[in-house]
Design a protein that fits this description.
two-stranded antiparallel ribbon; mainly alpha; about 110 residues; rod-shaped; 2 strands; single chain
Amino acid sequence: MKKRLGILLFIITVSYILYYDMRVGTLPMLSTYSKAKETVATVKKDVKETNKAYKSIEVKTGDTVLSITEEINKKKIPSIDQVIHDFKQLNNNTSPSSIQIGKSYKFPAYQ
């Protein structure tokens, strides 16, 4: 009888833990913090500089936003998140994953 009660309590506890983890998550503050950080960075960038330097390049087979940006900027480039943000800003919120071969896009040029 005690063994069955122990197993039942164990199953209820594990079920609650799984429910809580799926519903709320174990690190809810991490995602909130990163979103707040991005918002602050975006506001600072918009205030600081609205005219970004760029190069207009036609996309070829095998090109990605990151590979073209690295090719343009021989020096060290900023984070990938920053490159994606700048690319979207220059190209009317075009997603880097939806670029098409043969079309020209504006790629950020960092100094």
